[in-house]
# Entry
Amino acid sequence: MKYGVYFAYWEDSWEADFEKYIEKVKALGFDVLEVAALGLVNLSDDELARLRNLAEQHNVILTAGIGLPKEYDLSSSDEKTRQNGIDFMKKVLDKLHMAGIDRIGGTIYSYWPVDYNEDIDKPQALKHSMTSLRILADYALKYDITLLIETLNRFEQFLLNDAKEAVAYVKEINKSNVKVMLDTFHMNIEEDNIADAIRYTGTYLGHLHIGEANRKVPGHGSLPWTEIGQALRDINYDQYIVMEPFVKTGGQVGKDIKVWRDLSNNATEAQLDEDLQQSLNFVKARFLSTQ
Ligand code: MN
# Structure
């Protein structure tokens, strides 16, 4: 298992200077930095190569996350929207390859956040989503990129709300480079039992986001981290665990994540760093095998 953190903990825009976080996360004890594909997609080939080199220099693994905008909805009933989504995701995959990134997770099977003013036809959206995903899985395979299907809570998405739906989706897609991605923040809303849902997902689990019920860093809330650690050991999970805390208001990140109050106790950047480092120690103590 390797531990990482999503850059947006410190940022209020999905587009940021990712380079400065490479050294920072390494110094804080992480091996993985997750970046936003919506930021990467605007970088030039030279900038992507520089990012890749810097990460390699510091022995940091880059991963990517994305919530596809509505105009690129891969599950849309509108064929043109789906095609735009496929074209956009292919461009994203090209960019990931240039940045040396071998996995992308998030709402890569539909869009985010869902517009619930529109009627939902879940069976039809699911069918369209799978058709789009199969095309993208084949495209991603030539780069050895894995697509991570993240289950989201009902308030943000409707297609895949729990591990059971995500596993069924991935089984039906039946491509070696399509895996399930779970996130404890969403699971806390949707699953009967977070640890059991991890065990249910088993070898289909390709990526895990961790955060408390209010998206504070692990250890600052009440989620059952010891049980979660036991479940990860039970399934011999050996992929990445990425913290995805959101504690600051403002910007597009605050708006999209719906952070309407400061959950950081008005922390400075140095205090945010310290909270994160303490959280990493807290998590490692519970996730690493003691047997
Ligand atoms: Mn997540």
Notes: Residues 41 and 95 are 6 Å apart (CA to CA). The chain is about 45% helix and 15% strand.
